Amino acid sequence: MPSPIAQTVRSRSFRDLGLVLPAATLVLGPVGFLAWMGLSRGIGDLLIRTDDLGILPTVGRVFLLATATTLLAAIMGVPLAWLAVRSDLPGRRFIRWLAPLPLAIPPYIGAIVYQILFAPAGPLNALLAHALGLPPGTRVVSIYGVLGAAWVLSLFVFPYIFLLAAAGLERMNPTLEEVARGTGMSRWAVFFRVTLPMLRPALLGGGLMVFLYAWADFGVVSLLRVRTLTTIIYDYIQGTMDWAVPSGLSVILTLITLSVLAAQLRIMGGGTYIQVSGATRPAALVGMGGWRLPAMLFGFLVLSFALGVPVGVLAYHASRLSIVEAWAFLSRQTPFILNSIWIAASGATLVIALALAIGWLQARGRLGRGVSTLFQIGYAIPGTVLGLGMVGFFQTALPWVYGSPVVLILGYLVLFVTPALQGVCAALAQISASLEDAARGMGRGALATFWEVTFPLVRPGLVGAWVLVFILCMRELAATLILRPPGFDTLPVRIWIHTMDVGPVPTAAFLALVLVAVVALPWLGLVLVGRRGVPLG
Amino acid sequence: MIPNRNFRYRATLRALAAVVGLAVALAEAAFAAELVVYSSRKEELIRPAIQAAEKALGVKVILYTAGAGELARRIELEKANPRGDVFIGTTAGFAELMREKGLLDTFTSPLLNEIPAEFRAPDNTWVPITARVRVLVYNTNLVKPQEAPKSYFDLVAPRWKGKASVASMGERTTVGWLAAILAVRGEDFTRKYVADLKANGLKVLKNNTEVRKAVAGGEYAIGITNHYYYLLQLQDDAKSPVGIVYPDQGPADMGTPVFSITAALIKGAKNAEAARSLLEFLLKPEGNRLLVEGEFEIPLLPGLHLPGAEKGIKGLGQFRRPALSQVQIAELEPKVERLFGSAMTP
């Protein structure tokens, strides 16, 4: 008879396999397919082709883009978070509420908006040309290029940094800063030498999310004419029947992304940030004094650029449609709107269920790190690459999934289990295992304990995580564009096709507004109901 | 505890019901007998023709819109179990590639005999439904009509440095245009031409819509694009400052290339009969007229109205075109991709 320990180990490794195998199939299958296709003509051919395409400068450009985006997002997110949490600024509660909202505007929609604003003969250039006394029609500023793309991306992803920084500031024990003040350091010195270093884990976490987002972005760069690996891959998919080049590039892109991720994780793991006691009391609010006006202006500008301007421009353009036109257009688009809601809701539910299973088993020490690492790899795979790989892989390996909307749900699983796990783990961390032990001790089975004790306790946290994943699914473009089966277009896909066909016109703006509304409503609901379970915070 | 547990079971039941509903919806999506059209045409423009076909034939059409390359890639991937019935692509390039790979079925119709042979597939595996012309458009605020370039080959002159734009290879007409030059002028000439163009600051934009907007907005003075983008721009804004040139019209010049716009029957299509009637409908005057007018193309079949004639658009036979068949152009397209793929990426 095997010892009990051996038995536990075996049952655990079986359970691990039960989750690891499907996860590995989902994540590694598509990548493996691409690697196989990419090397079909040999590595020499691939290297020559990629050299022709100027891959090195392209990688450099994407690095620049991702770095600039992260910097800009930090410049917006960190001061806003500090103002919202620590200052006595009038309207700081307002900032706390509004600053996360730009997440509800997909960046590619932001790009459409800024494209309209900065058009060569558009309103902004006309105004600037007039102000500078230049002949009408002169293009003073252009949104096209790396800086324009970084600007647009950062406006709609800075809330990742804001949320983590704000939560970090709220958790921070104010005593440390007070002691520093007591030694005679100025407020600025305290901020840079105490507060900021304490925030390092939060900032690195948020920064990494922003960096990876910009790194893998497809929509914004493609609209704003930045040549990146994802746009080259997409152009090849659309314009040729060749598999070798887009697959090879996909593998290269995935490998670089993974090494970025690994490097950043190493940096993050490179220090310990132990605070002996948590925030026992809220920090005293810092009087803004003469800085009040500039600070308010800063908050107002950031929130206008990220919220007011996009919604305003879209609403203005949509309002150029007559009611009759708008209604006819909307009724034609209804099936796609329903498709989107349906697939995002099922996707989010499945993602959360899986994340809960993984998170719970891991928290109780019944599952190794294998599964969550696999999904982390999935999270790092750019959507364009995942789409191409999944189409090829599923057609070969799982033909009954290929061609049905299930393939989209599987794509969302690969992409979004990681962000879901963050929320789920935060919720689970608040439940002591001893509660479950007590239920087990009273004779409840493992499953009954989970349903009757654990689930009700984590449910508030799950709602927040569900809304986040719903939003992510709802606005996913790059992978959906390639994975969608015939007859199952989603709202982002319709916006994309529309914009590609005719450019940013009233109907596209109208559709974008519908998407923003569908995405923002659950979020607003969550904020209004006052749930604090929104993850990332 | 009891009511609470009931609640939980009810929640579980509801979740089960949702799963069943999901399965039913999926089954419906999978088995409904609808005609799936893989199309790389602009949906808003092709819709009138498709809707008329739905009405005339009594079938429901599902349009799956993507780039022609992605569609061809899908058709090849799905060879064993085709999901699409009809392919409506752009130029003959992909249709020829798919014909060679045995992915298309033949389609015959007496109507095809009315189309000049140079625009057709020799064995009728693909069907030319309309045609488009590769022209130059220019911004009339920036360029006077008499100073506009008369030839593609003028664009390497210093006068046009940094002023010309073209769509990427994602647009098949860009590939077809270079293939026509390659066919007429040979490889050495074309290599030098493309290199000179790039050295002269030719801007490669994502697609033809961007090109027409960039020219109309004054971002670039010249666009190498298709004739109907000129009409689309004027439809967007009748006062747009755009002009059109049919280049290389001199007696010794190569002429302005014309491309067949192709449709085809996918081999093994689940709804082959309905697919045939759709193709037939698109060739008949009632259907073809909607395609030509909806997309501002030029008709290949005789007796149809030419959209944009009053705005300077010329029909087949009203301008000089290269003495090339569509198959000749199509056969050179893979070579164009290989030679110029990286130069012609945005």
CATH superfamily of the largest domain in chain B: Periplasmic binding protein-like II
Q: What string, H for helix and E for strand, traces the elements of chain A in order? A: HHHHHHHHHHHHHHHHHHHHHHH
- At the fourth level of CATH, the homologous superfamily of the domain at 8-38 and 319-537 in chain A is MetI-like
How many angstroms does the end-to-end distance of chain A come to?
Answer: 49 Å
> Radius of gyration of chain A, Cα only, in angstroms?
24 Å
Please summarize the sheet with the most strands of chain B. Answer: 10 strands, mixed
- Determine the mean pLDDT of chain A: 84
Summed up, the helix count of chain A is 23
- Ranges of chain B with pLDDT <50 over ≥5 residues? none
Query: Shape of chain B, please?
Result: globular
Mean pLDDT of chain B: 89
Walkthrough of the structure:
The complex is a heterodimer of chains A (537) and B (346). Chain A is mainly α and 537 residues long. Chain A is built from 23 helices and no strands. Chain A has helices at residues 4-38, 42-52, 55-86, 92-98, 107-117, 123-132, 146-171, 174-182, 187-198, 200-216, 219-223, 229-239, 244-269, 292-318, 323-363, 370-380, 383-397, 406-429, 433-441, 446-475, 478-483, 491-502, 506-529. In chain A, helix 5 (107-117) packs across helix 14, helix 12 (229-239) runs antiparallel to helix 13 (244-269) and helix 19 packs antiparallel against helix 20 (446-475). Chain A is globular, with a radius of gyration of 24 Å. The model of chain A is unreliable at 1-10 and 531-537 (pLDDT under 50). Chain B is α/β, with parallel strands linked by helices and 346 residues long. Chain B is 43% helix and 16% strand. Chain B is built from eleven helices and ten strands. Chain B starts with a helix and ends in a 6-residue tail after the last helix. Chains A and B meet through helix 12, helix 15, helix 17 and helix 22 of A and helix 1, helix 2, strand 2, helix 3 and helix 7 of B.
